[in-house]
Write a structure and sequence with these properties.
alpha/beta, 11 helices, 7 strands, about 15% strand, disordered C terminus
Amino acid sequence: MKSRNFCILLFEMIDLHTHSNISDGSLSPKELIQLAKKNGLTAVALTDHDSIDGLDEAQTEADNQGITLIKGIEFSAAYGQDRLIHILGLGIDTASDGFWDIYSNYRKIRSEKLGYVFEQLHKRDVEITPEDAMPYAVGGYLDRQAIAKSLIAKGYASVISSAWIDYLDYIPYIEGELIDPREAMDAIHAAGGKAFMAHFHMPIGLKGYSETESRQRLEELKSWGLDGMEYYYPSYTEDDSRKCARYIEDFGFLISGGTDFHGANRPGIHLGTGNGNFRVPDDLLKEILLPEKRALCVS
């Protein structure tokens, strides 16, 4: 493998993976942008799970604060037997008809599939109804995020993470509840964006696959339109970073990175700085929005 090194000087602070309370973060889109300004960020991507409903609010506040907003989304896509992967879309134009057709159809179908989730909760004596969850349905469609918030409201959980770990993670996804990765990437590309695999080292990534299987999966995903991988991520070990760098080199991927900030719902991860000493190079913005080949240096 040819050696490429990430020889990057950090000029400005950016974060290309964040969540608001539209999905499972604790801050509103406006509050997230205000915190970005306070923390000295010059650009931030809002990438809520399967939702773009916070982007308009974030854009308005970004304009007020003089911060660059990268419009994004994090799709949860079915991939492999009883597995899923998270695909980040960055630099998307949500007004694109091609994007909107895929996105709105996915939201509608997923909402219609959630009866199964309520049935499974009832079997565990959790008395949550669609009516209970509807006040938390952003954009008019129910999803598991709305159910998680209703579990808190009804006293079954105290925080979002507990709602998922104690209840929703036990319930398998059924056909149609998750988007197909090809559709997710088609939607992102239709919106003029770039598609990245998020946190490859997790079970919602490539964890559990052998090296040969991982490469086969990446080859397949690339053939479907995967543009890059998230190289900068707070919980990567040195081995994770080296492995990701090899994949980026061998498959010619673009590079992204971010803190995966969730506010109070993920304590210890700070916007822009992760665990305190984490940074994302600002020159990634140029590559994502206007891709150019450059020499990387990863030791």
